[in-house]
Each structure stands twice: as C-alpha cells, then as structure tokens.
Design brief:
Elements: H1 17-32, H2 39-46, E1 56-60, E2 66-70, H3 74-82, H4 88-97, E3 103-107, H5 113-122, E4 127-131, H6 135-146, E5 154-156, E6 159-161, E7 165-171, E8 191-199, H7 200-207, E9 214-217, H8 223-228, H9 231-235, E10 241-245, H10 249-258, E11 262-267, E12 270-274, E13 284-288, H11 293-298, H12 305-310, E14 318-320
Parallel strand pairs: 3-4, 3-9, 4-5, 6-8, 9-10
Antiparallel strand pairs: 1-2, 7-8, 10-13, 11-12, 11-13, 12-14
Amino acid sequence: MSSPPETTGLAEAAESPWVRTARTLVRFYLCRFPLRNGKGRVYRTFQESLLPPQRWQTITVRQGFRLRLDLMDPAQRQVYFFGEYDERHEIRLLQRLLRPGDCFWDVGANIGYYTLTAAGLVGSAGRVVAFEPAAPAWQALNENVALNPSRAVRLVRLALSDHSGQAILHRRAAYADGGASLILRHGYHQETETVATLSLDDFLAQSGEPPPTFLKIDVEGHEARVLAGAHRLLAGPQPPLILIEMNDPAGISELLQRAGYQGAYLHRRRWHCTDEPLSAPSRNMLWFRPDFSWQRERLPFLGLCACTMMGPGCRSETAALPNK
C-alpha cells in the first residue's frame, strides 16, 4: 500500500498571498467571533479553497493544548478552522465537572482531544488513562500527548469490550478518523486489524489504576458491550460519572438504569434530566448516580440538583451552558 500524501493537493509555491490572508481572516472569524450564526455556512463555502498546502498542521486549540492535525480528516479539518472540537458543549461539561485530583478514563480516545482537555483539568494530582486500539489514531494520540509533556497521561492500546481476548477492528485506510469500530459499516470501513480486547473490570483489577471519577465512552456502536464489561465498576462503591455516545440507546439505557444511573441529555445548549432516555434527542448523554453525595454536590453547578434529588420522573430541571 502506498504512503498517504503529505499535501492537501495545493502546491505551496502556487499559493497566492491572497489565499493565505483569506485563510487567516476566515480562521480568525470562526475561532474568535462570538456569534455562531452563519459560521457553518462560511466554513462550508471556503474550507476547501482555503486549505493550506501541507496536510499536517499543528495548532493550539481553545483549551490551551497543542494538536497535530491531519487535514484529510473532515473532523480534524474542522478543528483546524474553528480552533476547537465540534462537541464543544460536552467539552465544557468536562470543564464544569472535573476537579484537580480526579481520575478520567477516555474510552475511544482517537487523537486525544478529550484526553488532553481532561489532563489539563485534573492536573498533576489527577490521573488520565486513554484507550485507543486503531493504529492510525494510536500514532496520532501518542504524537499529540508528546506535544503536551506537562499533561500526564497513560496510553493503553486496547479495545475495551465485555470480554478479554482479540477482535477485528474496522477502520478507514487514509487517516485517523473517529469511525473505527468493532462493528463493520459497509461502504465506510476500508481496512481491518486485529486488536487486543479487555473488559473495564479486568483492566481495573490488573492495572493498579484507581477507579475513574469520570468515564467517557465513544466506540462507534460498541458502547453497550463496554458497559457490560464494567459491572463491578458500576455497582461498586465508587461509580463514575459517564459521558457516552448513545449509538445503542436501548442497550445502554437498560444497563445504566439497572445500575442506578439517571440520564441527562443535551438540547439547545441545555442539559435536561430524563427518565426516558430512548426519546432523548442528543447524540451524547451524561449519566450520574443520584444516590452518591459527591455526584450530587457537583451537579448543582449545572442546575441539576433538584432533579437528582427527586430521582426518576423528573424532566423539568435544566442547565444552560454559555455560548462562548
């Protein structure tokens, strides 16, 4: 297989100074202008014509850490122009919930955006463990962590699941996209690799790591299997807060509600408690244990206190996130 190109298709010598100036202005507008209305249209109109010649670009993102981005990946290209990941409200949720000294586990770390955000929040007294099995993403994750040596992170090349062993991971060939999965998507995935699998419970028992305060899971459809392998963690004396992509709403909700968790979904920049997660409109959901005081003490900062105290049946309490 030939090596991927190092350029985005535009010869550097042929790039006009006007293009460089226009790119600088558009990036400044997308990154800094406070109102978001119209930004999506500007990005869609100009992002192809204003790509820099070199495929790989290193930038400092809004959260203050450095990332090496592959502009062949649409998601990373968007970070390059906007200066932050498109899941900005979820990132701000981390900023409101994580504390110095916390332990954050990033299951499906990809190139490390959540990982490095969390590492900056938990500080030197905290702990971040990032799990990523896919070869291109694993390489990018290592490079990005190395760009930020002050942020201590443990990297683990594993696919978390409900059993320990091996599995076939399906992914795209050209770049470290976020769609690598143990579940095949015909027409999207192009290559496979064999990866080691381990359950969260087994990792916790074998690794010597303290249990996580906060668990983020984004594994492209395999989330319920990850939770099924975390029974002891979820039922134990220190269950984590969980931010999870709801690719299997029924399976995820059943497992977490059975473990005593309450869900909250994001809608129009607000987090809403719900006991009907199958009707929640957001891609990601926050899950918490209302019977644990340390979780209740953090949630009032988001306006969820009344809901967590009331338990199932509450749908009215919301928490706004500032649009900046």
